[in-house]
Amino acid sequence: MFNLMLMATYTPRTLTFVCVLAYAFALSVSSVAAQSFIAGEDEAFYEAYNDGWRTGDWSGRGFGQWCLFAPEYAAAEEEQYVGFFIAEAGKEADLAQTAREDKAFGIFANGTSFEETVAFRSFEQPLNVGDVFSLRFEFDGFNSKFERDSEKTSSVGIALHLQTAINDLSELREGRAVVLALIEGLSTYQILDADARFNTRVFLDPEGVEVGVTIGAAGRYDLQLTTLSDNVVHHFIGRTLKQAEPKGGETVTLDPQLNGFALFNLNGGKSNAYFGALQISRQERQL
Question: What is the pTM (predicted TM-score) of this model?
Answer without folding.
Answer: 0.83
